[in-house]
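Hello,

I think I submitted the glutamine job twice by accident. Can you confirm which output corresponds to this input? Input:
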Amino acid sequence: MAASPILTHTLGFPRMGAQRELKLALERHWRGEIDAAALEAVGAQLRARHWRAQRDAGLAFATVGDFAYYDHMAHHIQLLGCESPRFGFTPGTPELARYFAMARGVQTLSGHGDHAPGSTCGAGCAHAPHPGEGQPALEMTKWFDTNYHYLVPELHADTAFRLGSERLFAEVAEAQALGHRVKAQLVGPLTFLWLSKEKGEAPFDRLDLLDRLLPVYAQILARLKAEGVEWVQIDEPILGLDLPASWTQAFEPAYWQLGKAGPQVLLATYFSPLENHLRLACQLPVAGLHVDAVRAPQELTGVADWLPAYKVLSVGVVDGRNIWRTDPDAALALLRPVAAKHTGPLWVAPSCSLLHVPVSLAGEDALDLELRGWLAFATEKLDEVALIAGLLDGRVAVNDPRLAAARAAIASRRASPRVHRPAVAARLEAAPEGCDRRRSPHPTRQQAQRARLRLPPLPTTTIGSFPQTPAIRAARAAHRRGVLGEAAYQAQMRAEIEHAVRKQEELGLDVLVHGEAERNDMVEYFGEQLDGFAFTANGWVQSYGSRCVKPPVLYGDVARPHAMTVDWTVYAQSLTDKPLKGMLTGPVTILQWSFVRDDQPRSRTCEQIAWAIRDEVVDLEAAGIAIVQIDEPAIREGLPLRRTGWKPYLDWATRAFRISACGVQDTTQIHTHMCYSEFNDILPEIAAMDADVITIETSRSDMELLRGFGSFKYPNEIGPGVYDIHSPRIPGSQEMARLLRKAAEVVPAGNLWVNPDCGLKTRNWPETEAALRHMVQAARALRSAMASA
Ligand code: GLN
Ligand code: ZN
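Support: Only one job matched these inputs. Its output is below.
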């Protein structure tokens, strides 16, 4: 057992505040209700509170630098002095104003007008506003395999770096003034470059900018040292990715250069195994290494073997990506051999930053005590880190009541009949051979469906949701609070459905939807009706900027006690002679957007959801619904960070989708929908889902996706989105017709559908009607062109 006390720390803490104080302050600031100083005061309060939580838990360090008003990568853009020149900031613009301009874009009054990309604006325009016409925000993309989105730095061949912000140093001083022992945190230079995007005419390799970037990192480290910071955590999570050799090779010289300058460096890796980078990570010239022992427990021995004895080994044993209470005995069983092997200093921490979990269980009184006892949010995870370290180095006695409480909770979860339902397990065991295959191949189904549906060529449809108007939101909220009675609520939702159906008929759409007025969220709506899910009052997690999501807690075997959508759908269908699509969320997306149980493989949990969705699909079919859409927008984001993990994931994920979809007759048409991602690299697997029709986001990339569909012959029908619903801009019918013609070059016209990119819930009705009218016109124009050709 280690003789010296084991130090403890966290890699980061959520920023929003337990009551989402930062969100409220940000939104007030953006509306002009509070000034920058008032916003900064809220930020300072939250930082102080979060550092205090770390101290109260007994952690050795308070982590400084993890706070961000919008996103930590955006703070690094300013720290490293590399704001994108397209924003054209004038010297007097305050730092925070520039920051929000990059994060949120700059609006203009003139707007951009309606023209096809490249037509009137010249090559390369692709609808980027012209200088002086405002600027779109920096692109946002997912932080590794999380649901957190960072702002993508834009680098040019001639980008120069400089120390561009005092914010980090001010925060360090702030923490020191509060009496904290500070560990500063930075995103590492290689991860920063890797996550950036190359911009500008001149092609270049952003890795070539490293030589210019390192002196600024050295300068930052020197400043931190001068200010009395002992330790700096430098995050290089890209060590968990498949990297080109040039990137791997850049690590060692880079860290030699940085090692000279400053305080002791703890190199932090997380989210994925180090695999071929394990030795490199252990041997870099830094003072310590943090590894994620939740995602890669199997590597701990190797790390302990390779890490020189004088270095700090920080072991992330408390899951920073999930909300389950840590089993202290399991954590100790993992740590004890490491402590015996690694004679140097051992630290204990969460696996990664706690940014990805909610702040605190305090206030979750609506959860029953049993279930609540199974959980640990960020604040509780700090306590777990301290407890585990204390048990390991003997500062906490084995008869400590906290240990007994943890053990009792773990035991209750393991044995609970709410978690383990024999009937669900039995159903999975009994799954018949072929349950994930349709009865006939697609060409046969296509004929049967054509005979039944009698749709025109290039059928028009939408993705499911229609505008969620203030009236709809108010009604749902009142119903939730119990203010609006069931009958009145039903009546109001039916009226909304009727409104949506009438509008669609008026617009001349071919396949209608009910509009999803009754749904707050596409996962929560189903989770609330399925067994095995629980909902927190305040379990918010930052998604991007001020946006937070509250993922359901998937704690037990999933079962469907009753039909979830049939009544609404049947009612909607009763209003029209046109076919109306039933609308469901797919098993992979439900899994991906929930906090998922960690006591069985994700694949198994996904399969349980798949059977519940399958029952719903079959019930819809039995109720006379001819088309059912099963949305899987999150299928790509579930991909493991390492390529070697892709195939196993895609195999079980696509099988889960097929289980949900394949309970029906040939005459029932199954649609799926995907968005938010680049799909070209998984087209064969998407095809393997065997949906009769896929509608997919494409318009933002000007049908880039279709390049992929051109080289890979997608076998079934497809509706590439012809307009971007994320923008209030209303494209003209010519523009949509142009995209459709482009699509028709690579997809046989007989297989082509016409639809927007995604659901319309965030738009208003006038925008929606105008855009859909143009879309229907575009489809009709193309139909008659096809007929006369
Ligand atoms: N059917 C959903 C909707 O239209 C799909 C949402 C999504 O793809 N994220 O809102
Ligand atoms: Zn979508």
